[in-house]
Amino acid sequence: MEEKKKVLIICTGNSCRSQMAEGFLRSFGNETEIISAGTRPEKAVNPLAVKVMAECDIDISTHYPKLVDNFVDQEWDFVITVCGGANAACPVFSGKVKQRIHIGFNDPADAKGTEEERLAVYRQIRDEIEEAFYSFYLAYISPKQMSSGCGCGCGCSN
Fold it and tell me: Any catalytic annotation for residue 83?
């Protein structure tokens, strides 16, 4: 049996984008060991991120922010940054990193307005993250094409 690929997803606070990316990547299959972490982790996962992921039947409510420094001495197949701040502040890894990738997304936590207006921004970023990480999954983790849908439960047509 082939060894699971190891993926580390990094953003600044590890409270939103990287948590959503981790949730989606886990939902696509079990071929990977996935951890998300932050360069300056927040105290908790953003509740609006939890809410919009639940709309896709993905529960990230038990996730918690972690400090990326705790993982720099490990070997990774992929280290993926999902925000410009994390890309710029990405630490030097003493462990082997086979491939470092940047897939940037706007920060939905910057959204203003009513909760519904902010949720609309979170949904848009969530959908962008799903699409990008499904493409990553197909290209690097499971190169064989799946027959229909992405398997995340969102009803998307990826």
Answer: yes
* pTM: predicted TM-score of the whole model, two decimal places: 0.87
| Within-domain flag for 146 | no
Structural domain span for residue 78? 5-141
Catalytic annotation present for 11: yes
Task: Say if 17 falls within a structural domain.
Answer: yes
pLDDT of residue 71: 95
Residue 148 falls inside a structural domain: no
Establish whether 152 is a catalytic residue: no
With contact defined as beta carbons under 8 Å apart, do 43 and 65 qualify? yes
Which pLDDT value is given to residue 26?
96
In-domain check, residue 119: yes
How confident is the model over 80-132, as pLDDT tens digits?
A: 999 877 666 667 776 799 999 999 999 999 999 999 999 999 999 999 999 99
- What's the rounded Cα separation, in Å, for the pair 125 and 20? 9
User: 11, 16, 56, 154: which is the annotated catalytic residue?
Assistant: 11
Catalytic residue from among 16, 56, 83, 152: 83
